[in-house]
Design brief:
Structural class: mainly beta
Strand order of the largest sheet: 2-6-5-4-7-1-3
Largest sheet: 7 strands, antiparallel
Distance between the termini: 55 Å
Helix content: under 10%
Shape: rod-shaped
Number of strands: 16
Radius of gyration: 39 Å
Strand content: 25-35%
Length: about 270
Amino acid sequence: MAAIDNLVHETSTSTGTGNFTLSAVDGRQSFNDAFGTGGTDAFYYFLSHRTAGEWEVGTGHLSDATTLVRDTVLASSTGSAVSFSAGTKDVTNDVPAADSYFAGGTDVAITDGGTGASTASAAFTNLKQAASDSATGVVELATTAETEARTDTSRAVTASGLATFARVATGSYTGDGTTMQTVTGVGFQPKFIWISPRNTTDNTISTPTFSTDVIEDDNAAGGAVQDGGASWRFRTSRVNSFTSDGFSVDDGGGDSNPNTNGQVYNYLAIG
């Protein structure tokens, strides 16, 4: 980046588009005092004709103590290098408007976060930090796949990333005594269901039913495990399937759990 300094001000009577010979101004720094000689695009310069509508902003350097070389034109009254006419020009050093971030108290966007990067992607790389319990500021968010893999240690987990990773829902339904009642409203396709009749009598133990993982490949014809009193039993035609928003239950062909007609059931679904 080209340099700036305080109260750098000289004049010139040079003309055309070439180098300018500089003359000192009392009480002001010279370009040589502020920046010395040599280099390319070493400092910003502002050229302004005192009596004509000619001006130019650019970056330059000194080839000697009093010779300004206009390396790169950034803006001007003509849109390119100005061929200055005769007369006195003020030559000063300041920050161009495009690089000035103060705007009278209003918010101004700073390109790429003021990181010095040339692209937004590179700026983010410069700004971000590894996520941790104490991290504050800019962190990178994990994708759903990265969350499910559980191997990344530097990205932050989001709620959407967890949406398909750790889902739990509770609810209830009323049995209808059929061999296929579909229960909806779970919000996702379950992988496991625990179903228990809702009892209103104190000290009554409910008989729970829970699905087995083989239901997912439909090898067990609606198989589920039920509390049989003295022992747990595997029974078919109980939890028939998992749907995109719930599950279907069966009365086992005999108005039985988990779909007894009129019986209210509570369920816990895990996806």
